[in-house]
Write a structure and sequence with these properties.
14 helices, about 0% strand, globular, mainly alpha
Length: about 290
C-alpha cells in the first residue's frame, strides 16, 4: 500500500537493522560495561577457583578430590539430586497439567504455593523440617520411638532439597502449556483418545524440551543448595555433608587448596549443566522456528 514503508533502507540502499540505529559509541560502551561486569562477577572468580585448586600441584588436587569425606559428599550430592529431581518432575508435570488444562477451585492458591520457595529463605525451610521432624519437634518423639531418622540423615537432606527446588519444573512448564492451549488435546479426545494416551501421545511431546530445561535447572539448584541442607544435615563428616557443606568445613579448617579443589568439581558440574541448558535452548529455538 502507498505510504507504508515495510523495509526501511539507508542512503546506500542497505536495509536498516533497528538494533544498529544507535551510534557506535553507545553500542561499544554498553558491550564494554557488560563484558566488564561479566569478567568481574563471573570469569574472575572462576579463574581464581581454578588457580587456587592447583596452587599446591596436581597431586594435592587429586588427593583433595580422592579424600573419603569428599567422595562421600559427592555421592550424597548425586543421590540427593537423583531423588529430588525425578520427584519434582512428577509434581511439576502434574501441577502444570492441572493448572493449564483444567479449571478448579483453589487453582490460584496452587499457583501461589508453587512460588512459595522463591519467597521463603532456604534456612527457614530447613528450620521448618527441624520443627517437624527434630527430636523436640512435632513428630520427633514418634519417629524416635519407631527408630526413623529424618533430621541429620539423608531423608531430611532430600526433603529440604525438594522444597527449594520443586517450583523449577512447574514454573517452566506452566507458561509453555498455557501458550499451547488445549486444542491438540481436544482434537485427540475427539478422535477417541483418553486419559494417559492423550498425555503421552500429545501433551508430553509438545512439552519435552521445556520439561528437560526445567529438570536441568532443578538439578543445578539441587546440587548447589546450601542453606536448607546446612540446617538439617548436622554436618556429620562422611555421612550428611553434601559438596557445598564439605567445602565450607574444609575452608574453615584453613585447607584452602582442598576447599578450592572440591569447589572446582562443583563448578565443573555447573558448567556441564550450563552446556546442557544451552543445547536445549538451541533445540527449543530450532523447533519453535520450524
Amino acid at each position: 500500500m502507498a505510504g507504508i514503508v515495510t523495509n526501511p533502507r539507508s542512503k546506500k540502499g542497505k536495509p536498516i537493522r533497528p538494533h544498529l540505529t544507535e551510534s557506535a559509541v553507545v553500542r561499544y560502551t554498553l558491550i564494554s560495561i557488560a563484558l566488564l561486569f561479566l569478567g568481574l562477577i563471573v570469569i574472575l572468580p572462576m579463574v581464581s577457583v581454578i588457580a587456587e585448586s592447583f596452587r599446591k600441584g596436581w597431586h594435592a588436587y587429586v588427593s583433595a578430590l580422592a579424600d573419603p569425606d569428599a567422595m562421600s559428599a559427592l555421592k550424597l550430592t548425586l543421590i540427593t539430586a537423583a531423588i529430588a529431581v525425578p520427584l519434582n518432575t512428577i509434581f511439576g508435570v502434574a501441577a502444570a497439567w492441572a493448572i493449564t488444562k483444567f479449571n478448579f477451585r483453589g487453582k490460584n492458591l496452587l499457583v501461589t504455593l508453587i512460588d512459595l520457595p522463591f519467597a521463603v529463605s532456604p534456612v527457614v525451610s530447613g528450620l521448618i523440617y527441624v520443627l517437624l521432624f527434630g527430636a523436640q519437634g512435632l513428630l520427633g518423639p514418634w519417629l524416635a520411638e519407631h527408630d526413623i531418622s529424618i533430621i541429620f540423615a539423608t531423608p531430611g537432606i532430600v526433603l529440604a532439597t525438594m522444597f527449594v527446588t520443586f517450583p523449577f519444573v512447574a514454573r517452566e512448564l506452566i507458561p509453555l502449556m498455557e501458550a499451547q492451549g488445549v486444542q491438540d488435546e481436544e482434537a485427540a479426545v475427539s478422535l477417541g483418545a483418553r486419559g494417559w494416551r492423550v498425555f503421552f501421545k500429545v501433551t508430553l511431546p509438545n512439552i519435552k524440551w521445556g520439561l528437560l530445561y526445567g529438570m536441568i535447572l532443578c538439578n543445578a539448584r539441587a546440587m548447589g543448595e546450601f542453606g536448607a541442607v546446612s540446617v538439617v544435615s548436622g554436618h556429620i563428616r562422611g555421612e550428611t555433608n553434601t559438596l557445598p557443606l564439605h567445602i565450607e568445613i574444609v575452608y574453615n579448617e584453613y585447607q584452602f587448596s582442598a576447599a578450592f579443589a572440591v569447589a572446582s568439581l562443583l563448578m565443573l558440574l555447573a558448567i556441564i549443566t550450563l552446556i546442557a541448558k544451552s543445547i536445549l535452548e538451541s533445540r527449543m529455538s530450532e523447533e519453535h522456528e520450524g
